[in-house]
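=== RUN LOG ===
request id: a7f3
mode: sequence -> structure
chains: 1
length: 177
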Amino acid sequence: MTEVRAAHTADLDDATLQAARALLYDVFDDMTEHDWEHCLGGVHALAWDDGALIGHGAVVQRRLLHAGRALRTGYIEGVGVRADHRRRGVGAMLMAELERVVRGAYELGALGASEEGMAFYAARGWQPWQGPTSILTPTGFRRTADEDGYIFVLPVTAPLDRTADLATCDWRDGEVW
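=== RESULT ===
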C-alpha cells in the first residue's frame, strides 16, 4: 500500500534525502545538482511502498512578480515517480499533498511543466501562464521566452491576470524556472 508523508527538509535524515536524490536522478535523464538544490529548503512529499521510496515532490517558497506585487509563491519542484509505479495514482497523491501545502501557506502556486506533464497538471486545475515570462538576474530582468507556455499557476488568494507579465525575482543557478 502506498503512503505519502510530508516533511520539511530539516526534518529528513540523510538516508531519506539521499534516497530522494537518487530517485530523481533515476527518473530524470537531465537531472542536475542545481535541480536537486532547488528541491531543498521546503516541504517534501514522499511516497513510500513497502518501505521503498517510490515518489518525491517538493514545494519551496519563491517570490513571483506580477502586477506590481511580489507574490509569496509555493513553487513545485522535483515531482517524480519510479518507473515501475507510474500510472497508479502516485503522482496524484504527491500533488494532492503539495497542493494542500500551497493552499495553506501561499498566495499562489507555480511550477515549470514538461511537455509530458502539462496535461496532468491542467487536469488538476493548474493553469498555463499565457503572458510573457522573465527572470530577475544579477544584472537585471531577462526575458525567458523559451519558458512561455510551460509555466503553470495554481491561484490561491492573489488576483491574477494570466495574460500579463510574470517574473520571478529570485535568481538561482541552473534552470531559473
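=== NOTES ===
DSSP finds four helices and ten strands in the chain.
The longest helix spans residues 90-105.
=== END ===
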